[in-house]
Give the backbone structure.
Amino acid sequence: MSHILDINPEPRFELSPHLYMQFMEPLGTTDSSVEAAWDFTKNVWRPQFVEVVRDLGPGCIRWGGILTSFWKWREGVGPRDQRTPMINYLWGGIESNQIGIHEILDLCRQVNAEPLIGINFAADGRPAYIHTATGENRAGTAEEAADLVTYCNDPDNKERRDNGQPEPWNVKLWQIGNETSYPKAGERFTSQENVHKYLEFARAMRARDSSIRLIGWGDEERDGDAWWVTDLLATAGDEVDYVAAHMMHQRPRRPNTVLVSREYARDYDCAWEELDEIYQAVVTKLDTLRQKIEASGFAVPLALTEGHLSLRPHNTNPLLHEWLAGLYHARVMSLYERNGDLVKIATLADFFGTRWTVNAVMLGGPYQNAYLMPVGVIMRFFKTYSGDQGISVPPSVGSLELSASRRGSNLFLHVVNTGLHRSQQVELRVSQKSILDAHVHEIAPDSLAAYVDHERPDTFTPVRREADVVDNGVTWTFPAASVSVVVLNIAS
């Protein structure tokens, strides 16, 4: 069955380039991640890693995660032989601190990504990091956070200049609080403690640089039904530039799930049904966050600074190498784009590493080339062919899920065919505009089991196809289980 889609080209909102953010955190013995991308013989980021990240093109790179609950930034600056190693209390092992704030911001500069820095927010109130097993107190203070703002942004900061960086970085995005509501009660701040501590940190940091933009924690309690965004905005709304939440609940709903190990390979249709159930949970959470923020009376945007598909074995499920995972992530990316009036910062995965399959970039070991996982392919694809203003399209037409944007006279329609076994034809028109020409970028593997690895990094390379304009319309058939971008050049 064919459908007609009439696109309204009028801009509705600014589409943020930070929707395609990447998030990095040293993962210790769990996944060698950050230090595996560093060349310790030359003290530079591995050139091939930088090349792959440039290709990925993240609009923003966030340094943070739970590691920042016990991260002391001054341990990672200054002469390399004087930097203080630290225990990675969450992920195991020792972090050398050879990668500190200078190296993080240098990576952002090399790949043209805006930095987003998470600070040590008084250990997020977690006793395990305030009184560690080795007798340390790793909680950060508001003064330490403010000192980091000064270190990064004050043109005359002597400490930074003495450490070899004469020019300031002018870091604008800062996150205060990471998954602060997730531990059990008694093992973290309360919601009210979070608000009052946030105000202490926010005021100290803004006193050093009033131009910075601050992200406060507003997610729900994992062991309750309270949403911290309500207290955060009621008490500190004037000091909050973004509300942070994580999409970390993307896991199977069924007790007898096939989304474990390689069980999914026995029944891809059942696996897709389960992935749809997970996707609907993402929709519900995003809708709830919108309702909570709108009810507050503050027009504060949302920052989804972490979130990934969580399948067993924990963060190492092989499905994430395969196209079915790419198709799922395209649905989530399209959802965030449709809600681009609210969602201004977002990511679909962790950033890079050697073992976890939830990474966007897979580094591998010696003699293995780095490559993009399907989730990374999707984020690169949608960001590469995207406008800077969101426009209205129906969320779905037939088996297709849609989002759209505009840049000048070019319209970009992102199309996910959720039908695994059937193509979908659509006639595209643009309201009160003439279509001058059109083409389609398409990812349509022959098999749902198509995959990428170190030997097959280019499996999901998009193919460009020309489209005919007939009677001021474009009729296109989208293959089953495909992800496409239709580019329409309209008369201005």
Notes: The chain is about 25% helix and 25% strand. The radius of gyration is 23 Å.
